[in-house]
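Usage

Read records sequentially. Each one opens with the input sequence:
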Amino acid sequence: MKKYIYIALSSTILLFAISCNDGSDAVGESQIDTNPPILNDLDIWLRQNFVAPYNIEVLYKWDINDTDVARYLHPPLESSVQPVAEALQKVWIEPYTQVGGADFIKKIAPRQFNFVGSFNYNPNSPTITLGVAEAGTKITLFNIDFLDFTNADDIKRPLKTVQHEYGHILNQNIPFDINYGLINPADYTAQWFNRTDEEARELGYITAYGSSQAGEDFVEMVSEMLTNSKENFDAIIESITSERAKEIIRLKESMVVEYYKVNFNIDIYELQALTEAATLELVN
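and closes with the structure output:
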């Protein structure tokens, strides 16, 4: 009896296997596009200048799912991409490489830049987002279709964003001294956009956005130092009426200087001079 049951069961399994076979041994076509991408001259230039030497990808062809779908954003014009990429190369990569060593950017850097052509207006707020960083690996820059490369101040806006976001990335690798946030914590506010930069400076913050919280305060000091010459940065501080506020900002400046020197063996004043010279060279 057991023998017949076994035979019957084997027959059933065989019948099931046959019924599942459509009679063809062909494997269906893959749904994954394995064709090599078609590269234009811009793509080749970006690979040669960012991907190959630094493992940094510059994205400029993207769909809506790569950004905030609630915002009215669009990819940049191709003609806008290389000038901005060259600005990053000259004002961010090359100065850090010169003072920090050939491997500095290779070891500590966002691995992607995403370029957006349009402005990123914030709903329910009188502010515009110039850039965002995601987990220290990706920086998105907005408004690149509207940059005027004949105007140094206009060029400095996206560069300030990069210096700001890169400051966050450095802090994620090595945190800044927690005592920095204890210098004048009472006037930090989420409503920072209701202050002007001049009002914030009278409270001891280098910019209004720097008065939002300690982490932003620190990287705003970094970005202001690295998008102004030392003379212009000193002039900003000397324009402050409150002597106490001047002392606070000078103390914060000294802590930024120490952070770069102790943790990365970088003289930020040397870096400041290099970035200023490189920025001026970009102006057409």
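Summary fields computed downstream for this record:
- DSSP finds ten helices and six strands in the chain.
- The mean pLDDT is 87.
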